[in-house]
Amino acid sequence: MDNFPKHKIKSYIQKEVIQGQEDPVLESIILAFNRPSFLIKDSKFNPAPSETWNSILSPYISNLSKNISCVGRIELKNHESLDWVGTGFLVKDSIICTNRHVAEHFVETTSPGYEWKINSKSKTVKARIDFLEEYTVDSEKEIELVKALYIEPAPGPDIALFRVNLDENIEPLELNTDSSVDDVIVTIGYPWKDSRVSTRIEQVMKRIFGDIYDVKRIAPGKIVSTDSDKIHHDCTTLGGNSGSAVIDVETGKVVGLHCEGGIYYNNAISSKIILNRLSKI
Description:
This protein is α+β, with helices and mostly antiparallel strands.
């Protein structure tokens, strides 16, 4: 990152971890400060409200905007209680990548293969991905998920792959298997509000999200650590971010699939795993 070297990023971003918190939402809000979540409109975002992140992200806004259009909200029809269930993003050959725990809301694993779930009124639960769902944008860009290609059995990596039939040329996101601690990243997804939290945590959420949820956002942070099949990061995420793309700012490529929060960091499935599972279908 020529315009903002990593040692400078470290000095700008102060860790102010909320200690001893057991509220479920705080498993995803790792740092109370300096980890904003920017609204997206027309596949663009403005980091100017944060002086730190404006300096870091400005050189890469154009490239990141291209990535934004490949991320969508996974929405459901005929589900008993949910209108939408998480995030997904486009990878090679018209394939959507998301989490297994997202897919389990509308797909059952059979032997062999997969089947769409049936609700209590004997109607098939169907899923689609909307590549918009942006703040104050009324238009939609919905594509039906037509086939479950691969759903990793538990307790394996939390990944699922679906076929879509694209009616226009959308260039998929590229994957990058080379990621390191302190790399600057963003997550792109759809955080939703968790109503189970305490008043204090609700105040933290309100400061970060401004009471605007369920729409597309981009949240910057960095890689905290890595292991053989996961990367651990500190971007601000909430429940609807399940299935978000974790993108390296400098390369513009996906380094992970966000899957869950933790007390000290959030977890994402490594792109190495995504590439391996793509090779199996």
